[in-house]
Known about the structure:
The protein has 93 residues and is an alpha+beta fold. Helix content is 22%, strand content 40%.
Amino acid sequence: MPQRPVDPAFQRMLGGYGLTTAEVLYRMPDHPSFLQTFLWQFEDLAPDYPRLKRFLDHWDREVEAKIHSVRIMHMGLVKPREVRLVREVGHLH
């Protein structure tokens, strides 16, 4: 039986990547008294969050709005200890 290739998204999950939500509170220069929200979901690697860091660096360089705060939520979907190889599952009658 030919082996199927492993899904790259599944391999990333085993490597520690998981669904990450970043809530960015920011102020626009023309309305500094208003606090606005930007919500973004993506896959990232906790606890370093390299993709989020690249995004925030881009925001600092390219966006006029000033960041007030960032809240991060991370959910590891699959952990290596949750995956077990099973030879035989059983028979269903």
